[in-house]
Specification:
Largest sheet: 5 strands, mixed
Number of strands: 10
Radius of gyration: 22 Å
Bound molecules: zinc ion
Distance between the termini: 40 Å
Helix content: 25-40%
Shape: elongated
Number of helices: 11
Strand content: 5-15%
Structural class: alpha+beta
Oligomer: single chain
């Protein structure tokens, strides 16, 4: 129902003018009816558009606004066509995009590229996709960065208790269904309360099986879940259907993106990169043009530059 496109040239052809891009975004944002982003008024009859302009007026709060207000596009002068191209690049490049590359591709400064990439990542991570996970679900954590990077996992787990973020290594927990979807996020530590809360929130009680390694943090899931473990410390990696190879491959992909593409990611921003990876993985079957429209439908909520650099 919305315009779509298979390639970047098709995207530009679909939006020959800035006005056509504004019209497209307006149609997607108001697909379920007009609303005022300033007061929330959803009575379409009480929202008007000043003729011949892109300025809308709400007759409830009596304020004027553009369609960018309250979205990731707010407070930027970048044309929407440039944003669309950025969304295409970030949403579709399998290894992610360094902000230096993005800056060159879009003809913007590196600071602008960095800012828009983070806003796009922010909207990629805000909503969970297909939660809770079902089928056979593997759960595991990994550690990114810091002085413990090359230590064994058991050493890093023990050192990740309270204040784990301060020690320079950032724990990330993830769950992947063998049916295909992944949910992952940065956590403060890998103790039992944190890990089990993550499982309860993101894995269906009716999942066929939850597979983890024997880390003590996963003890106690059994009454609620069909929990199976593999004991890596004795060299056990596969026990029938029980293994964590799928989530391990997600972690290798995450590290390749962070080290290979971005070179270094600070703990503060890591969760957005994790969200970006999960977003792309979960939509690997979705046509590229549809991914752009999907992102445009999630563009609510600006991430002010002040918040980003805080
Ligand atoms: Zn209003």
């Amino acid at each position: 129902m919305f315009k779509t496109f298979k390639t970047l040239p098709e995207l530009f052809a679909a939006f020959p003018t800035e006005q056509s891009a504004i019209d497209h975004f307006t149609a997607i944002r108001w697909a379920n009816g007009k609303f005022c982003p300033l007061c929330g008024n959803a009575d379409a009859g009480r929202i008007g558009t000043l003729s011949g302009t892109n300025t809308h007026k709400c007759y409830v709060c009596r304020q004027r606004f553009s369609i960018r207000v309250g979205t990731i596009f707010q407070d930027t002068k970048l044309p929407l066509r440039t944003w669309f191209a950025a969304i295409w690049l970030i949403g579709n490049h399998p290894k992610g995009n360094a902000s230096t590359t993005l800056a060159t591709d879009l003809g913007v400064t590196q600071k602008t590229a960095w800012f828009l990439a983070h806003r796009i990542r922010e909207s990629q991570r805000t909503k969970s996709f297909n939660a809770p996970l079902g089928g056979i679900v593997e759960v595991d954590e990994t550690f990114v960065g810091g002085k413990f990077q090359n230590k064994s996992k058991s050493v890093r787990r023990k050192g990740s208790g309270r204040g784990g973020m301060g020690s320079g290594k950032t724990p990330v927990v993830g769950a992947v269904s063998r049916d295909g979807d992944v949910i992952a996020r940065v956590v403060a530590n890998v103790d039992g309360d944190t890990l089990k809360a993550f499982v309860r929130e993101n894995v269906s009680r009716s999942a066929t099986m939850v597979v983890t390694d024997t880390w003590v943090g996963y003890k106690g899931l059994r009454p609620e879940y069909r929990h199976r473990t593999v004991n890596h410390s004795i060299g056990q990696y596969v026990k029938g259907d029980a293994h964590t190879n799928t989530i391990e491959s997600v972690w290798s992909m995450l590290k390749r993106q962070i080290i290979g593409t971005h070179h270094w990611v600070s703990a503060k921003h890591l969760d957005r990169y994790v969200g970006e990876m999960a977003y792309r993985l979960n939509r690997r079957e979705m046509p590229k043009g549809d991914r752009v429209n999907n992102m445009l439908a999630r563009a609510e909520g600006p991430l002010p530059y002040k918040v980003l650099i805080a």
